[in-house]
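Bumping with the actual sequence this time:
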Amino acid sequence: MDPQSKGSAVLALHYQNDVLHPEGKIRVGLSADSPVRSAVIAAAQALLQGARQRQWPIVHVRIAFQPDYRDLIQNAPIFRNVAAIGAVVEGSWGAAFYESLAPDAASTREFVVRHRRVNAFYGTQLEELLRIVDARRLVIAGVATHSVVESTVRHAVDMGYEVTVAADACASAQPAEHDASLRSMDLIARIGRGEAVFS
């Protein structure tokens, strides 16, 4: 591992079939042939590959619920919508990772966390895993920018992590939402693209 990379880790959020695949139930609100979808997938692939080359730990965060949604508190429109459309059911194709962005099962540096709220830290073992790998700097990316990404970034910053957002590996249904979220996070995190997130 590059000595300058010590203490760095990647959080990859919601790279799942229901979120990214053209046949997924959520699909980020993007059309099946949207060039934004292809660009986000390509950027996420590059992010994961770059982390693997540098031997950085990667935590793949997925959202999933029981088939009857008994483990989902439907106190917000986003959660009521998930239940209404039958998305990200545990054990289903939709809740599984998008094939080209799936964890490397043979790697001892990659972990999977399941969560059930907006913030990836809430009610999960994410903080414990980051302590185990001695992470102090996080590169965070995923879908959607203005929900799980921003919520997780804000929590991480409050916990004392130095955070970089890999902007090109994030997306929202509307470009305006994505851009506004990046501008908001720019107050508390570094916004990077491509190889720049590794420096």
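The tokens above came from a reply further down the thread. The beta strands are 8-13, 58-63, 110-115, 137-142, 162-166, 190-192.
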